[in-house]
Amino acid sequence: MSEAESTKESRPYLVLDAPSEWDRLPDIGLYMDQVVTYIEKELESLRKAGDEKLVTPSMINNYAKANLIPRTEGKKYSKQHIALLLSAFTLKRVLSVQDMASLLSGLGGLENTKAFYESFRQSMDRAAKETVAVVGKGISAAEEGGLVPRTAYIELALKLAVEASLRSYAAKMLLGEADALVQNKEPPASKAFKAARSARK
Known about the structure:
This protein has eight helices and no strands. It is an all-alpha fold. The chain has one domain. It is globular, with a radius of gyration of 20 Å. The termini are far apart.
């Protein structure tokens, strides 16, 4: 095998990275411009070339108004703010602000936020590795089978998009159920959830 072929086989088709671990997040308060720069760098692998900025001050202010993050001390953002913002900007592709508010509500203090962030990061790290593997195997199989590259990319994109859509839908339904339990109301479940609940009885 030539060096070029070996390099091609070892090079990943997609790179997705989870943000830094809790202990590596900034311990000192950051001003808005520093926060924007930091989060953009942390989530760089999620930004497609040519896309608009992933993070802007107005987005952060909107998240604050929606109570996704607690009020700042002065104008500085703490480690807790950074962790919640990293989570929110990662999840905004699949969850609305209202859904994220349900997800983040009730975290309270620092320890709960730390536990949530570590769970979020572990889930993202696991999903990133699985997605990278699926993309790599799918493209390699297509190349070996002589499939036209564009066709292979479209088929793989469709598969991933359908899975993402259904999982996003399920996540939103679960958040609705969780909110209803807190409010002691009948969960506004979809037909699919109601059918599954009935089948368990």
